[in-house]
């Protein structure tokens, strides 16, 4: 699998880069961003945080707005930010912002026309890490985080693959997509009418049926305009309580759904993941 | 003078806000962004850093990409980010990115059609601080900084008004606009053929004729694609040496002209300005 470099920006002593590559999983060309911390110059492999962005985003939003590179450079973590869906003129799309390109929801679509390209779950779990670990000095120590739709993606992917990730976190995640308008619209289109298939991609359902636990951190703003209708973190908290799942859920007065919220608390997430990288090393 | 609030985002315990207002100086409606640090809740006025952005930018670029709010919240500094030019359907413009809207160059235009609206110098020096200090708990302790065209703006405005700013700084500034393509194009259009008028807005010329010095910090990437043709910091360094002007000019290997460079070093700029706020208080 080959990759093509398309941008390089030095940042905090490391490098912020973008690459394109042909994705066999998604059946189209894809772009991703990667931050390589200065520690890669010492010849040791560094752990990786995969960041999944929300609706309408690309690989660029988090890298440009979160300020995460400052802390990743200090801690020696690589950050990989994929796009949020397959893209291209021959990829199915929808005029609304919450379906189709930019809105892949990190599932494997089973329904036409989406099933030709929309396999973001397989891409994030398998193809992308394989590509990253082949081309960069990055170890198989992985954590995963994301925002909103990407928070849903991070939590579901980690809980479905607890051996592949040492920790998971999210900002303002869609916690119970089978019970909110964004999730119901996307899952109807991508997965069809069978609601049992939807439960395979629902954080609350996955937490209720979890047998292997990994540490989880979720931050949520109390002034988030999507909190009660779309996000519903109280349902994830209830599932965690039921299962004694190791979830730390923090609410923050005054904060909204924007990247200003992410920028304000991303440092704690990187330190959280680093602590669990280290714990898994011993 | 009234202002209208159009956005509010909590960030790092403070508030990132945008406002619109009618500018008498620019003869059009203008938008600015302001970061108010949490210290304003204590009832004391805070000092202000004015940030001037570069070509094509608006009030948003710095606020979204620099990460400066983290340090401003720690240090108790407000940041004010104006737009880079007058705007609007009835404001003169040019098809190129380096003239007209988005490219005001922080001068008072004397030539038609630009002289009807393009008085960014007066706006930044007089109207905007008056508006800010009227509406927000912000003291008359001011520093000024900027990037590229905005670095040119920050240095020239501070040197022309050394009593109004306790310190000045810049990232990748256009140091000698009368001798580079960007500056010559803009000054020809805005100021006309008389090159003596251009010297009033040239950092090297102003430094050579300075009688009151204020502390200056400039950072420049060695891999900046505009370094040798447009920016020419070595000429500013030569003027500083001639005059024993207190300029600290730092070059950084590998860094380019992007916001990733600004994000990497903005913390040092905020600490530099804070040191000089404090010195001026005694």
UniProtKB/TrEMBL annotation, chains A, B:
- Encoding gene (name): fghA
Q: Which domain of life is it from?
A: Bacteria
Matching PANTHER family, A to Z? Answer: S-FORMYLGLUTATHIONE HYDROLASE (PTHR10061), S-FORMYLGLUTATHIONE HYDROLASE YEIG (PTHR10061:SF1)
Q: Which reaction equations make up its catalytic activity?
A: S-formylglutathione + H2O = formate + glutathione + H(+)
Gene Ontology MF term list:
hydrolase activity
Record-listed E.C. numbers = 3.1.2.12
The entry's protein name is S-formylglutathione hydrolase
Its keywords, alphabetically, are: Hydrolase, Serine esterase
Family recorded in the similarity comment? Belongs to the esterase D family.
**Is the keyword Phosphoprotein in the record?**
no
Instruction: Identify the species of origin.
Output: Zhongshania borealis
**Can the keyword Transcription be found in this entry's annotation?**
no
Q: What does this protein do?
A: Serine hydrolase involved in the detoxification of formaldehyde.
Identify one Pfam family in the record: Esterase
């Amino acid at each position: 699998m080959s990759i093509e470099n398309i941008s390089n920006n030095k940042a905090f002593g490391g490098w912020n880069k973008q690459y394109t590559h042909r994705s066999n999983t998604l059946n189209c060309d894809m772009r991703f961003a990667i931050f390589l911390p200065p520690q890669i110059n010492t010849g040791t492999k560094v752990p990786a945080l995969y960041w999944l962005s929300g609706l309408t985003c690309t690989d660029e939003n988090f890298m440009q707005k979160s300020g995460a590179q400052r802390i990743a450079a200090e801690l020696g973590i690589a950050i990989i930010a994929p796009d949020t869906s397959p893209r291209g003129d021959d990829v199915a799309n929808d005029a609304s912002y919450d379906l189709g390109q930019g809105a892949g929801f990190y599932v494997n679509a089973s329904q036409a026309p989406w099933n030709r390209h929309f396999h973001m779950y397989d891409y994030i779990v398998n193809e992308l890490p394989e590509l990253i670990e082949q081309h960069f000095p990055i170890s198989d120590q992985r954590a995963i985080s994301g925002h909103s739709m990407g928070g849903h993606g991070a939590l579901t992917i980690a809980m479905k693959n607890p051996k592949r990730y040492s920790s998971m976190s999210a900002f303002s995640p869609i916690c119970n997509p089978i019970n909110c308008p964004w999730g119901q619209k996307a899952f109807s289109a991508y997965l069809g009418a069978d609601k049992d298939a939807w439960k395979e991609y629902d954080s609350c359902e996955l937490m209720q049926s979890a047998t292997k636990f990994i540490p989880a951190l979720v931050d949520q703003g109390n002034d988030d305009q999507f909190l009660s209708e779309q996000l519903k973190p109280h349902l994830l908290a209830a599932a965690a309580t039921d299962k004694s799942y190791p979830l730390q859920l923090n609410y923050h007065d005054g904060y909204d759904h924007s990247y200003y919220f992410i920028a304000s608390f991303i440092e704690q997430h990187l330190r959280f993941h680093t602590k669990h990288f280290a714990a898994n090393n011993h």
